[in-house]
Amino acid sequence: MLIAWTIGDINGTGPEIILKSFREFAGCPARPVVIGSRDALCHYRDRYNLDIDVQTVSSPEEARRLDASVLPVISTGEPPLPPSPGMISESAGEIAMTSVRTAVELCMSGHVHAMVTAPIHKEAVSRAGYAHSGHTGYLAELCDTPSPTMLFHDPLSGLNVALATIHVPLRSVPGLVTSMDLERFIRDLRRSLQTDFGITDPSIALLGLNPHASDGGVMGDEEQNLLEPLVESLSGEFTIDGPFAADGFFGAKRYTGYDVTVAMYHDQGLLPFKVLAFDTGINVTLGLPIVRTSPDHGTGFDIAGTGAASPRSFTEAARLAATIARNRQQTNQQINRSTNQHPL
């Protein structure tokens, strides 16, 4: 199995965590191929005195033929100057996004089985001429998938948090929640948990939109008009409870009783998640025709170039990508066997 690791922003910690993660993966069945800049990887390898052989390849097939101790790189462009840790750069933004596009193309064509993305910097990406605020929107465009789901997973505790809305202003959240097809969102999420995570019958907790889940309508009516009826209509088919007041829900650790918690907006779900799983959290994009994971942290400009970056979240993201890819393969094999046994 071959997995594409995109380099992220070369002025951030992406190259460093990739190099450190590779040491954990040398000899593993799920082999990485980095998409990005060989020069940047070699710059940081030499900076930190890491004994890693980095070689340029032209294709995934060539990467497979290399010894497992070699880190292969498909170059999508080299920076005009050596990396400048902590600096915002147009060229760094271009290399980051070109790497993502190339990895998606390799996944869609079946040449690699999954992709893991190192962090990008939104301002650098903007300077390079991209309108996307992050990976998710760009991946949705490249894969022609209008509404992918952001799921955050902690492999240590098993905590899963899914976001109903993603990178939008807080003032836009109520309108988006009331206008979206929330029932379809939940059904798609449940199906992804079954296929990608191998959870046979996922249990779902739904958070309220308003403080204290509106306290019976005192602080808003979205719970009474939308969320409560939705839970009631779906609870006959599978386990779904709520809407819960977010603060008490996490404070009392009620999330431990569910396979996934659905948050209505970004900070409602990500603030408690990062408190609980900052070093090990993984971002998974569900609903795409490809497998994509990433570490749940940013570019780390404040520590870039110091050698202090932890590879743990990226390493866990790479392991999860391999697991999801295998789960999808097994599901497809079961479907094919069923189809062959019961042809139309």
From TrEMBL:
It comes from the Bacteria. Pfam families: PdxA (PF04166). Its EC number is 1.1.1.262. GO terms for molecular function: 4-hydroxythreonine-4-phosphate dehydrogenase activity. It is an enzyme of class 1 (oxidoreductase). InterPro entries: PdxA_fam. Keywords: Metal-binding, NAD, Oxidoreductase. PANTHER family: 4-HYDROXYTHREONINE-4-PHOSPHATE DEHYDROGENASE, D-THREONATE 4-PHOSPHATE DEHYDROGENASE. This is 4-hydroxythreonine-4-phosphate dehydrogenase PdxA. The gene is pdxA.
